[in-house]
Amino acid sequence: MLLREETYRQQSNFAHYCRTGEFLPIKGVDEKRVHHYSRLVFNVIDDTLRSAFPLTVDLFSEEEWETTTRRFFASHRCNSYSVWKMPFEFYQYIISSEDELINKFPFLDELLLFEWTEIEIHMMEDKMFPEISFTGDFENDVIAFNPEFKILQMKYPVHLKNPNEITETDEGVFSVLIFRQPETGNVQFTDISYFFYRLIQKIMNEQKPLADFIGEAEQTFGVERSILLTNTIPFLMELQQNKFIIGFKK
Amino acid sequence: MIDERTANVGIGFRKEFAEEFLAGNVLSPAFVEVAPENWMGIGGYWKKIFKRVAEKHEIYSHGLSLSLGGPDELDWEFLKNLKSFLKEYDIKIYSEHLSFAKCDNAHLYDLLPVPFRWDAVQHIAQRIKSVQDFLERKIAIEIVSYYTPVAAEMSEVDFINSVVKEADCNLLLDVNNIYVNGFNHNYDTKEFLQKLSLDPVAYIHMAGHEKVADDLIIDTHGEPIIQPVYDLFDYTVQILPQPVPVLLERDFNIPELTELQFEMNRLENICTKHWRNELVTA
Ligand SMILES: [Fe+2]
What ipTM, to 2 d.p.? Predict the structure, then answer.
């Protein structure tokens, strides 16, 4: 490298100061002004994280937020060149390094992931939509799903309840479907039962009509076919209205 | 690079005014500048918006993350993605900053001042050359505003001239940054411009700033351009050896679009005043 070790040291100390607030000697630096850099640099981090995680901001005390975000930026090396992806690194940092917070808020990992996933689905690259026909039969045709989605499996209802009110007693099994509406690009999320979670997975993986799975479900859940269908089809129609179901396989 | 007989004044694209910009005709920039880091590798709503902008306007790109002045290895994965992005939208201009934004493997998402030193000149020039080779084009590097020197061993202007000469790259002259730096570091901006190599200047930025103390201006891009910066721009246009595109940057505190167009018109008038003859004969 053409850069002298000593020059590198000056830059490294400067960057270290911006990230941590800890001042190591930097030649010729104006000590009355240098704090503007740490302020401006941290503002970007704070603004980006606040807009990515509004529910978490609300859950934490101001002090918790301030100290956690500062610890994150000081100890974690941000790797994303696009600043909008940096919040995902915050999520990863929290789950790997902030045990105390995770103990205090046992649903924090899921809350952060839920908030991040909304951004991820909103921003992710366009996926290929399958060739479909808009009309079809829910029972006997293969349902075609919008490919721009994610389903999160969670133990706490972070998508249903104000995080400030979630307690250990809320623990259960939850699935949230998060998807992007094709025309508007808006992100929608909807709570789905475990049954629908499995059903959607099965239809996607096996590319078979609903009728094939209802037989299996009859056995697994011990529920009559007609009851299963009357409970299933209205929800599927709702998903069609919301554009998660985009039609039927040709 | 410039349209016949018309000055080439563009606008920095912001999500905040995207809808209004696309819906109306209030803003009529000659081109639109974007930060590739915000528009590469995305889909959905913002990709649709970006495509509409790119259909209507010529796109210039101005990078944020490359950290040409930094000690870390260049990010070749980023450069690869950048290259296909530039190709996909037929983007002819890519510029970056003469600063660093990444160090010890950590992005800082801001433009930090580099040490004005000879070894830094060589280091940065070599990096610019690698980037130019890889992208198969010249890039323009922007003189950034700064609030404190860092380990300087040579003057700012010598440093910049040396980098540009060694790297054989173009220069992006942000006239507001020159004003801010002259104010913050107490030097004569016209003298600075006289000493600066102007032949490589390929592009101009103009913006507003914020005075935070009697002796310190922060380059916020959150205010209108002030009169002394227009005056310095007028001077710059007169001494530049060739007409170049001019960009209005406004990143925060976005006003009505009519106000932005008004500022762009003022810039255009100044360009036309001084460049008309050259443009007519060009
Ligand atoms: Fe600029």
Answer: 0.94
